[in-house]
């Protein structure tokens, strides 16, 4: 049971920007004149796939003559998938009047922060950046098929590798993009959200992730052919990477905004071996999806051929059920606007397959919010919420404002050490379809009040 109040607070005009060009110049406020005011600025750089940010600079940021403490300084860090807001306590503060070495990112996403106390201000800085330098891995992958691999990594304490592979080619619709990795050897554990290393797949939505040492085949799929795969890992830990292949199968796809009908490949004659199909159904905000099975005939062994239905859009969404044989499930209704159907068969045997229909139903939990204040609550609050529930609220606020979230009533969610069962996740948009985690740990949510 959760109730949450939100309000918007005005933010004065400042500095910083989100930069996606191949080159350019940024300067501190009032450069080259002194700035006798407190300022905190952040510039976010995003390089094309396979490139990284190179930023030679010139600057004059003073130190305190007696203590050597930086009165004005810059800090740089690579933006990692689990947080665009890392702690900067241990990140070097760069100041003085001697030109530092070039500030090179290790990946395509790079942040630069500038802070000044307004005390004994210097001229500031002027920084010229470019994205001409190649990154150590990543790039463009042509559709419909190909291979993906990583270089031999050298142990480097305190350094992260960040590789992004983006698909190029025409999206025909009603297809599934399939990645098969021979193995995955990346630092990290699924129980702590792969914080030391991760491989993840993103289309229009975040589709799935994996990490750790997995010696057998690892599968990642998406119905969005316009997607990318990203590897981030701590090079202070040993790793082998993720060799594998990818291909497009002619089944699956995204159904959005209307009722739909889907069938297994070859229905009703029989589906082919080694089929992989990924369907995603998306209803309008505030509506749910009801899935009805009209015909269902698979092999009896669920380890061979099966259908998985998830209450959400990614591989970690709550599993509603795994079905095989002729045991068709009763109609299934999602708790939110997303529902996933995943079909996979093995190399032997076949059966007629299945036919299913979906319809959109008013009303689920979640939705798009345009108001400047209001209240959110979990389904059925103040009584208990149900099982396998996934709700997503999007607060669309005016540029130049901040959103304050405060838990005002009872906060009673099933607790476990990793928050992997029931949780409240707060994210913020990083531009476009990029979302970064602000908080997920229940204790932090309550203590910080966001």
From TrEMBL:
Keywords: Disulfide bond, Repeat. Disulfide bonds join 194-211. Residues 15-132, 137-249, 251-361, 365-450 form the CUB domain. InterPro entries: CUB_dom, Sperma_CUB_dom_sf. Transmembrane segments: none annotated. The keyword Repeat applies. It comes from the Eukaryota. This is CUB domain-containing protein. It comes from Caerostris extrusa (Bark spider).
């Amino acid at each position: 049971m959760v109730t949450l109040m939100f309000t918007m607070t005005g933010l004065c005009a400042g500095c910083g920007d989100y930069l996606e060009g191949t080159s350019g110049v940024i300067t501190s406020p009032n450069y080259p004149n002194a700035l006798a005011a407190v300022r905190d600025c952040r510039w976010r750089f995003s390089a094309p796939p396979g490139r990284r940010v190179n930023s030679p600079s010139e600057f004059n940021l003073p130190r305190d003559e007696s203590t050597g403490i930086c009165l004005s300084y810059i800090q740089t860090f690579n933006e990692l998938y689990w947080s665009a807001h890392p702690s900067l306590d241990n990140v070097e503060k760069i100041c003085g009047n001697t030109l530092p070495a070039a500030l090179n990112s290790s990946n395509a996403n790079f942040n630069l922060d500038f802070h000044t106390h307004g005390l004994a201000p210097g001229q500031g800085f002027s920084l010229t950046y470019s994205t001409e330098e190649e990154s150590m891995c990543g790039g463009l992958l042509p559709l419909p098929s190909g291979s993906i691999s990583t270089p031999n990594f050298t142990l480097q304490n305190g350094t992260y590798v960040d590789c992004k592979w983006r698909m190029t080619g025409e999206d025909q619709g009603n297809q599934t993009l399939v990645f098969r990795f021979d193995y995955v050897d990346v630092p990290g554990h699924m129980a702590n959200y792969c914080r030391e290393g991760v491989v993840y797949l993103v289309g229009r939505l975040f589709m799935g992730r994996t990490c750790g040492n997995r010696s057998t085949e690892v599968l990642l799929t998406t119905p969005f052919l316009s997607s990318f795969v990203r590897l981030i890992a701590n090079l202070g830990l040993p790793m082998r990477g993720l060799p594998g292949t990818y291909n497009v199968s002619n089944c699956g796809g995204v159904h959005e905004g209307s009722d739909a009908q889907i069938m297994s490949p070859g229905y009703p004659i029989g589906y082919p071996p080694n089929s992989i199909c990924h369907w995603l159904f998306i209803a309008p905000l505030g509506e749910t999806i009801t899935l009805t099975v009209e015909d269902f005939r698979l092999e009896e062994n669920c380890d061979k051929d099966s259908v998985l239905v998830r209450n959400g859009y990614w591989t970690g969404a709550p599993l509603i059920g795994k079905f095989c044989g002729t045991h068709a499930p009763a109609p299934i209704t999602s708790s939110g606007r997303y529902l996933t159907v995943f079909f996979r068969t093995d190399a032997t045997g076949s059966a007629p397959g299945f036919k299913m229909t979906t319809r959109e139903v008013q009303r689920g939990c979640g939705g798009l919010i345009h108001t400047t204040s209001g209240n959110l609550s979990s389904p059925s609050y103040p009584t208990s919420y149900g099982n396998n529930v996934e709700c997503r609220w999007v607060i669309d606020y005016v540029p130049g404002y901040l959103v304050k979230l405060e838990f005002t009533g009872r906060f009673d969610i099933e607790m476990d050490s990793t928050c992997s069962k029931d949780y409240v996740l707060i994210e913020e948009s990083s531009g476009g379809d990029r979302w970064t985690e602000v908080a997920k740990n229940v204790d932090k949510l309550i203590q910080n009040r966001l």
